[in-house]
Specification:
The chain is α+β, with helices and mostly antiparallel strands. Helix content is 30%, strand content 18%. It is built from 4 helices and 4 strands; from the N terminus they run H-E-H-E-H-E-H-E. The protein has helices at residues 20-31, 50-57, 87-104, 118-128, and strands spanning 42-47, 71-78, 108-113, 134-143. Helix 1 packs across helix 3. Bound molecules: flavin mononucleotide (FMN). Residues 8-9, 11, 60, 62-63, 110-113 line the site of flavin mononucleotide (FMN).
Length: 164
């Protein structure tokens, strides 16, 4: 629970590589997410190639900072799953798990929106070389935090309605 309130967007990174074991633990957490009919439509592409990272970061004005990240994860989903209309919802759950585990590993990153923008989905899919049955859903930059993380609490009691 602690990590839920400590996770924030980290857009600056130390010049330090991230070990494969840590990335695998982060993806293990992602794959623990719930999904409709347990269809688990998510797939992950781990990018550490500098040129590819630069290309991915250039896809949108909101991801340019990621050019300096040691890793970009491209998160995609399969279009041929049982309930394709739920695939983006399922993959969002995996993203949140992944982000929380990133914080737990002492790392930081940020979700970069790709879905539902068709032009970003096409560009990311092409750069990452995704197979035809997959759709790019999001990118996640990953690295050791080069900025401070702090605990936060955004609880809004007035947003809760009770039907008793
Ligand atoms: C669907 C989604 C798309 C996002 N896209 C971007 C993005 O393209 N670039 C970016 O810098 N941050 C992006 N973010 C991060 C949000 O800006 C950030 O989570 C929000 O401002 C709350 O801040 P926090 O993550 O520090 O709690 C995205 C977050 C979500 C959930």
């Amino acid at each position: 629970m602690e990590n839920l309130f400590h996770r924030i967007s980290i857009r600056k990174y130390l010049n330090k590589p991230v070990k494969k074991e840590k990335i695998l633990e982060i993806l293990r957490a992602a794959m623990a997410a719930p999904s409709a009919c347990n269809q688990r439509p998510w797939r992950f592409t781990v990018v550490t190639d500098r040129e590819k990272i630069r290309e991915l970061a250039a896809v949108s004005q909101y991801s340019v900072f990621a050019a300096a990240a040691p890793v970009i994860l491209v998160i995609s989903y399969r279009k041929d799953c049982l309930l394709p209309e739920f695939a983006p919802v399922d993959t969002s759950a995996a993203l949140e798990n992944l982000w929380i585990e990133t914080d737990a590993q002492g790392l930081g990153g940020v979700w970069m929106g790709v879905y539902p923008r068709p032009e970003r989905m096409a560009a990311v899919g092409k750069i990452a070389g995704l197979p035809a049955e997959e759709e790019a859903f999001a990118m996640f930059s990953l690295g050791y935090p080069g900025e401070e993380t702090r605990k936060h609490d955004r609880f809004q009691e007035e947003w809760i309605r009770w039907i008793e």
